[in-house]
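User: Round two. Same drill as before: sequence, then structure, for each protein.

Assistant: Same drill it is. First protein:
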Amino acid sequence: MSPSSHVVSLVCAVLGASPSPPATVRVMAYNVLYSSPAEDIDKSLEVIEKEAPEVLCLRELTPGFAAAFRKRLGKDYPHLKLMPRKGGWGVGLASRHPLRRVERFPQKPHRMPGLEADVVVGGRTLKVACLHLMPPGASHRQEDSLLEMLRKNATLRKHQAEALVKRYAKERGPVLLFGDMNESRTQEAMTAFAAAGFTHACDGPDALCGDTWPGAASVVPSFVEIDHILGRQLSLSGAKVLHGGGSDHFAVRASVALPP
């Protein structure tokens, strides 16, 4: 329990009152694959509709997926910030709760964008960042070998994670990072998040986690966990990999309890 929670509990005990219960919100991160045809977009929307998250992070969001989302699920998500693009750089947040201070920002030292917002849940504020770190196979120079590309992109993801840690170092309230991190929990970007106090949803109670890539759109079975939900000053539970959909990633979800 944090020092502030001890103070709240003590004050409530003195006044004879019970501390207010934590606000809880269901969140989901989904890389929906920029090259998905219409039938696969429908399959991915089915996963979202069935899971019904309260806050949704979408990566590789294209104009086609954004239009289909608005048509099918727009009424369920009155608070939307969709920034679709052709290719893999599109990003969006969909929320059943009000969004404040929404900002698209470069995930330094690269320009690939993240999307940040304050989500107002039961009168409390949760800072969220919808992320997509550098893919392992992204090319830098035509003459680079595969091993050189993997090495350069792992280093770049580490620097991106360090920049994100710095970005939120002075944030006093709870912070949620979710999305496609493009690496497993033992690699350097993810360990940088852990060292900065971000806990993994799959380490919380009632977790049913596992590999998230490749997903249902691939004939190759999934063999690596690269989509993650991380929190600081939050209690994370019920994490689950959602098999199905029409993407080369499986979606991940979790329940997030904000501090009182």
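Second protein:
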Amino acid sequence: MGRHGPHPPPGPGASGRAGAGAGGAVGVSRPAVDEARLHRLLGAADLAWLVDRLRRRLERGQPLTTGTVSLAAPTPAQRLAAERLLGRAPGGGGSLTVRLDAVDAVLRRSGISPEGLPAAVSALTGPVVPLKEARRTEEQAWTEAYAPLTLLAQDEPLLADWAARVRETGLVRRLAGTPAAARTLLDRAARVLRELPAEPARSLAVFAADTLGSSHALDDGTPLAAIALSGVRALTGHPDGTGAAWRRAAWASAGLLRDDVSSTVLTLNLRGTPALDWMADSGEPSVLTLRQLAHHPPQTAPPLIHICENPAVLSAAADTHGAGSSPLVCLQGQPSAAALTLLAHLRGLGASFRYHGDFDWGGLRIATTLLQHIPWRPWRYTADDYRAAVAAADAVPPPLTGKPALSPWDPDLASALAEHAVRIEEEAVLETLLSDLGPASGYS
């Protein structure tokens, strides 16, 4: 009978079952409801609409002894059922209106439900939990579901802001649907994020199998992958984006690789393997894959390596200085797993680093991400360098856009960017950078 179909007739001994008052669920001893007669009286399919309306009123905390309920377009069978219930026609007109006090009186006088409608509705449809109480219970369940995220934020301060955003945006509720599913989802996501970044880099599928018991647990399109990848971005500073290539790069920023050849790093005049030596002798750039770095890493490292953000700098260095250029590594944006693996390896061999990037908010984020993995000193990448570049610009530089970022190696740099509100790309200071990379340069 509708969404709350009638209970089957009671078995032996069931006639002593307690009823429920208007305040909530069954549990307190009450005068018995005669369920067999109740089902004959109110349990018919043509009165399902009435029982459903009565239950909703109970859930909202409204009384069942006063007022009316109406059905806009009743069938003849529904009108006849109401007439039999009340012993008279419920009224004329196109709609069907039933007075609640009349139904309540029938139940009490007949002895079917000595406590009237509230107990009868509970007997027919099950215990009634008021909506306010149900909402409180559900909210408590959601609070408990977020426990893995709360603990993760306490243990990993870098993820605290992210955890708060996940809670506020309702992403977990949309992905999981229920508190129980959310608790499982967040427990698994926290397990993933506690193991990151992976050092050294490793296969995403192998990591998922080891951490979660399934190599497909972090496949694209799963709720777990969506939550975990958003946490990865918070952990590594990887920028917003979409598409398969962006997701591959985002995972790689935390050391998780879809494969070992897609992640690459661009270099100039590094040595230490036969291939690198040959390219350095000719002064040509090299592209190293993560697979190459895992199987055949450089065996030597120069004492100082310059790092740039944009390939145009490295290409110009090769054109200008060739084999005489200082060793140079290009990140090509956010540092890839290959770049981080190479730089960590070179640092282990004794190399130190000087870094330059674009003077904009994105450049500061890239530099900060790199600083979280390896130490470096600024290579003309301070507030004074930025102000000098702004002053020397031949034309008005493009405006600064995006969300502000910090510059922990020189806090004044972020302030200077906010003050001047223009961006200076590496290409705009290319001549200065190239002079630092020449064989006769005294810059170190």
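The first strand starts at residue 68 and ends at 71.

User: Perfect.
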